[in-house]
Amino acid sequence: MGNVDEDTPAPRRRPYDLTLPTPPDALRRGPLREGTFSSRLHDPRTAVVLGRWLGAALLTCFLTGLFSHLVQDPPPWLADRLPSRPAIGYQVTQGLHVISGIAAIPLLGAKLWTVYPKLFEWPPVRSVLHALERLGIAVLVGAMLLELFTGLFNTLQWYPWPFPFRQTHFWLGWLATGGLLLHVAAKAPLIGQHWRRPRPGLAQRRAFLTAVGASVAAVTVTTAGQSVPWLRALDLLAPRRPGLGPQGLPVNRTAAQAGTAAAPADWRLRVDGPQPYELTMDQLLAMPQHEADLPIACVEGWSASARWSGVRVADLLARAGAPASARLRVTSLEADGPYRVMDMPATYARDPLTLLALRVNGEVLAPDHGYPARIIAPNRPGVLQTKWVARMEAL
User: Fold this and answer.
1) Per-residue pLDDT tens over the stretch 43-83
2) Domain 247-394 in CATH: superfamily?
């Protein structure tokens, strides 16, 4: 009778067993060694608290960024439904977008420091599912880092990359947000376990979280002044000062850059519609003039308010015989540029605050601010407040 051990077949791995073989312990070197990370702050509770703060910042950043994208490039079904009020809507949402994005940078750094020992856990990959989870986290972290830092560079108007910023930023936002939601769903049991504050707490954790909170507050109050007027005195680190520039307003694209430093001597505004016509500057000034206090709010996060005066766009369209539902297309004198031609939904074109501005703060427009005429409208990004207007067309 044969030996039982010899006759018993060796256990076979079942077809659905996705566990991978454990690598030898001889490979555990450097940060892979057991006990390398001894800080008690590399724990789930600290990660959950930071995750809550980071999640709130990223969700605010994503939703406000989505609104900005839809205002700049609305799909056809949404274009005529965008509201023109509140007048400061874009100023508030884009300010929040940049503020929350900048605040998320130190939060993401603290969160990654808390969990980075997981990168060196042993074995590095336990199963196929574990490998897929780690791959998903790598994509999530990469998307977040690229999203936040390209956005930060955009506030500086510095683009050291070959790809288009706005489209890449938009899709990275979806990728990072989707990855974040999947990560939260996968870690939901662990998050739920450590969501509430434990008793007693860890003094070291409280000190660390206080330091992180103070860092976020410091970064916020020293940069948010570019869009929050009552924080303007503390605007030390923001890339823009809202009060600096020609006529007390910043400028992104100058007349020299646009090739419009000298307006044509025979400049006329052409308005196309059922009853097209042209107007000289004197004829425009002879029309009823209206004033509006409106901000210039740019995608880089800065905003500055001014008192604009000129002719209501609605009056110009009515004179051309355009119906109330007509959209507006505005063409600039500049020879090229991504926003040389701008389309405006009817809700904005008919708003009494939307002007073909001829003056700002009581002065004739400087060339950098759009002389001889520019568009100013409520709840619109600065890139759509077309300068150096040559033609208006009712669609």
Assistant:
1) 999 999 999 999 999 999 999 999 999 999 999 899 999 99
2) Oxidoreductase, molybdopterin-binding domain (3.90.420.10)
